[in-house]
């Protein structure tokens, strides 16, 4: 399905723009004896940022007042290429200069109606992949009973019905050992695979822990824990007895009917050249009963095997330490509550963190809405340091659970960026092409009919 994205054009009075486009040399525009002129060689109203300071207007240069933008034109020799232009997918040209394009149709990776091993076999978190010791690719998009896909590469996978991890359903919220999803994986050797677990304490399933006897976000308390596979991904378990496997959470204990609260679904794990492993996590809810704030936090560790080694970015350094509010003394909860990174630009995007060796930048992909709230779906942002990010751009416009108008309409979640040709055993790097994997909830069979899809994308270096 071809996805042609249209962006709002910059609003300029037509007369002023055409006046600019027809002007030649000479000191036109009355800018004074020494003025700054911006190059617009293709006369599309957008400059690539090149300037000349001169008394007279050089050919191909214009005053800022006559341009829609003084920077951002990624091809100043082509008038059809500039910020806000209509993007034509799959043509190898970045018409709107946003750094990416969709380069092919949507593909089905998993069709629940024919591929499931049981009804609850659903893709319920972003897809993660790694290359095991035998050279086989394993892909996991976990539910609380986890299975995997196996194959020679990401383009040739078969869904395997073997269960690799189950949940413990411990009724004690302080054990962080209830309903467990494999949220992220990382391996150096394909033999030992570390997994960050998204642990949901589901109060509605435990007597006396929720006023509702059925699913309720108000009784949802979340934390992250550690699991490890020492047999190349065939099975996962906790390396330490709960709650010593606790990795990250908020510094407040569970209170029935005051959720959702906690640290939710981690991004993919990314290793940098400094020897640390990084992840972005979703923090939801504070200590006050009415605090439903949520944002993205950045954390890192030098040792994936030590659940206590993770530290979060506190605004100036990786000096923040998570606590277990059931076993640790918490004298200052705010110091143990991870703060947001670049909330204005990425909101609470956390699903996929990778590094593009082609761009030399970090890439964050997540679900959400545009800054002005007019667009919904999967967004992309770029960074040099994982702390400051570019303003999120719409990657794929898709209906989200909270934006659909018709309860029977399909909605989408859990995007992740994976490159079949990644140079990393854990697929935490991408080149100039990759796939966006995601889940479509078809709103059938009691919301269990969920397919995994993917769409190819191309990245551009400007």
Q: What is the topological layout?
A:
Elements lengths: L13 H9 L12 E5 L11 E4 L6 E2 L37 E3 L4 E4 L1 H4 L12 E4 L5 E4 L5 E8 L2 E10 L13 E9 L5 E10 L17 E10 L16 E3 L12 E4 L5 E2 L5 E8 L9 E8 L9 E2 L7 E2 L21 H4 L5 E5 L4 E9 L6 E8 L9 E5 L13 E8 L10 E2 L2 E9 L8 E10 L3
Parallel strand pairs: 12-14, 20-25
Antiparallel strand pairs: 1-2, 1-3, 4-27, 5-27, 6-7, 7-8, 8-9, 10-11, 11-12, 12-13, 14-16, 15-16, 16-17, 17-18, 18-19, 20-21, 21-22, 22-23, 24-26, 26-27
Overall tally of domains: 3
Mean pLDDT: 93
**Helix coverage percent:** under 10%
Task: Write down how many β-strands occur, each being a DSSP E stretch of 2 or more residues.
Answer: 27
| Basic shape | globular
Q: Uncertain runs with pLDDT below 50, 5 residues or more? A: 1-31
> How does the helix and strand content classify structurally?
mainly beta
Major β-sheet annotation:
10 strands, mixed
What is the count of helical runs?
Answer: 3
Could you characterize what this model shows?
- This protein is mainly beta and 462 residues long.
- It has three helices and 27 strands.
- The radius of gyration is 25 Å and the shape is globular.
- The chain folds into three domains: 1-96, no CATH class; 99-142 and 342-462, no CATH class; 167-341, no CATH class.
- The chain has helices at residues 14-22, 112-115, 343-346, and strands at residues 35-39, 51-54, 61-62, 100-102, 107-110, 128-131, 137-140, 146-153, 156-165, 179-187, 193-202, 220-229, 246-248, 261-264, 270-271, 277-284, 294-301, 311-312, 320-321, 352-356, 361-369, 376-383, 393-397, 411-418, 429-430, 433-441, 450-459.
């Amino acid at each position: 399905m071809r996805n042609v994205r249209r962006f709002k054009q910059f609003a300029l009075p037509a007369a002023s723009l055409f006046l600019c486009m027809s002007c030649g040399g000479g000191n036109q525009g009355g800018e004074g004896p020494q003025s700054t002129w911006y190059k617009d060689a293709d006369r599309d109203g957008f400059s690539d940022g090149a300037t000349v300071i001169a008394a007279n207007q050089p050919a191909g240069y214009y005053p800022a007042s006559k341009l829609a933008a003084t920077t951002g034109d990624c091809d100043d020799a082509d008038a059809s290429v500039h910020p806000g232009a209509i993007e034509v997918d799959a043509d190898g040209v970045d018409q709107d200069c946003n750094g990416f394009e969709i380069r092919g149709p949507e593909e089905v990776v998993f069709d629940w109606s024919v591929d499931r091993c049981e009804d609850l076999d659903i893709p319920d978190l972003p897809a993660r992949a790694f290359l095991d010791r035998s050279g086989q690719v394993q892909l996991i998009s976990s539910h609380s009973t986890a299975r995997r896909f196996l194959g020679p590469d990401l383009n040739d996978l078969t869904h395997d019905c073997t269960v690799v991890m189950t949940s413990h359903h411990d009724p004690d919220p302080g054990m962080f050992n209830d309903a467990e999803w494999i949220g992220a994986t990382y391996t150096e050797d394909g033999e030992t695979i570390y997994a960050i677990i998204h642990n949901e304490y589901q109060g509605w399933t435990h007597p006396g822990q929720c006023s509702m006897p059925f699913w309720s976000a108000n009784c949802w308390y979340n934390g992250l824990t550690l699991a490890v596979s020492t047999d190349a991904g065939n099975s996962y378990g906790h390396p330490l007895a709960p709650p010593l496997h606790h990795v990250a959470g908020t510094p407040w204990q569970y209170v029935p009917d005051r959720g959702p609260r906690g640290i939710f679904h981690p991004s993919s794990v990314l290793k940098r050249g400094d020897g640390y492993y990084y992840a972005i996590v979703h923090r939801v809810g504070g200590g006050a009963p009415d605090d439903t704030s949520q944002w993205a936090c950045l954390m890192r560790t030098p040792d994936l095997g030590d659940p206590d080694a993770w530290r979060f970015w506190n605004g100036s350094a990786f000096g923040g330490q998570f606590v277990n509010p059931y076993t640790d003394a918490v004298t200052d909860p705010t110091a143990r509550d991870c703060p947001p990174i670049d909330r204005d630009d990425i909101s609470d995007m956390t699903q996929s963190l990778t590094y593009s060796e082609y761009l030399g930048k970090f890439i964050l992909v997540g679900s959400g809405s545009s800054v002005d709230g007019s667009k919904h779906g999967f967004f992309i942002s770029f960074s040099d340091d994982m702390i400051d990010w570019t303003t999120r751009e719409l990657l794929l416009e898709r209906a989200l659970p909270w934006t659909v108008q018709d309860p029977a309409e399909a909605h989408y979640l859990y995007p992740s960026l994976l490159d079949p040709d990644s140079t990393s055993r854990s697929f935490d790097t991408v080149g100039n092409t990759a796939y966006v994997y995601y889940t479509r909830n078809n709103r059938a069979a009691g919301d269990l009919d969920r397919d995994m899809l993917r769409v190819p994308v191309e990245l551009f270096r400007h």
